[in-house]
Amino acid sequence: MIKLLLLGHLGNDAIVNNVNGRNVINFQCCHSEKYKDAQGTEVNKSVWVSCAYWTDKTNIAQYLKKGTRVYVEGQPDVKLYRNSNGENKCNITCRVISIQLLGSSQKETTVNTNANPPITEESGYKPAPTDYSLTGGEDYSDLPF
User: Fold this and answer.
1) CA–CA gap between residue 48 and residue 9 (Å, rounded)
2) Does residue 74 contact residue 31 with C-beta atoms inside 8 Å?
3) Segment holding 108, helix H or strand E
4) Which DSSP symbol is given to 37?
5) Measured in Å, how far apart are the chain's first and last C-alpha atoms?
6) Which domains occur in the chain, in start order?
7) Residues with Cβ within 8 Å of residue 48, at least 6 apart in sequence
8) Cα angle 96-47-50, degrees, rounded to a multiple of 5
9) Measured at the alpha carbon of residue 136, what is the angle toward residues 130 and 139, in degrees to the nearest 5?
10) DSSP 17-31
């Protein structure tokens, strides 16, 4: 088996489809890189992968929104085709085995962060006592950690 690991952002909201009585969640995942080539020119490169997650547990689809950062594991497939100009092209697809939500887009994260008040002693937070003594008075100052 060949395994594909994706770390990227969703390019659209996930769509739940029913194919021959089986549920599938379809979405697009994008990984972008920025680097300088040998001539020192900055290059922006994006790779789009069409993902299909065959599962009965489709409730995760409500969290798969455009801009959400995800980690996807699956089996890759490359589909070759000829576009309308007669050029040969390829499309990378992934049959998802597992998916992990890593967070929202920066815009959504900022909104959620600002909506939650900071945790302070004024808001009722009481820190735990900080007694870090290990055992009966031994000196551990020479330990490297």
Assistant:
1) 10
2) no
3) helix 106-115
4) -
5) 42
6) 4-106 (2.40.50.140)
7) 11, 28, 29, 30, 92
8) 35
9) 85
10) EEETTEEEEEEEEEE
Q: Which is nearest to 24 in space by CA: 100, 95, 79, 99?
A: 95
The Cα–Cα gap between 126 and 142 comes to: 32
- Alpha carbon 141 to its chain's center: 41
The tokens describing 95, both together, are 């049959």
Give the pair of three-digit tokens for residue 37. 């080539």
Say how far apart CA 134 and CA 17 lie, in whole Å. 57
Q: Is the pLDDT of residue 38 over 80?
A: yes
Look-up: residue for tokens 């600002």? 114
Encode pLDDT of 45-58 as tens digits: 998 999 999 998 89
pTM score, whole prediction = 0.64
**Tens digit of each residue's pLDDT (9 = 90 or more) over 76-123:** 998 898 999 999 988 889 999 999 998 765 544 333 333 444 444 444
CA dihedral 70, 15, 26, 16 (to 10 degrees): 110
Question: What DSSP character marks residue 127?
Answer: P
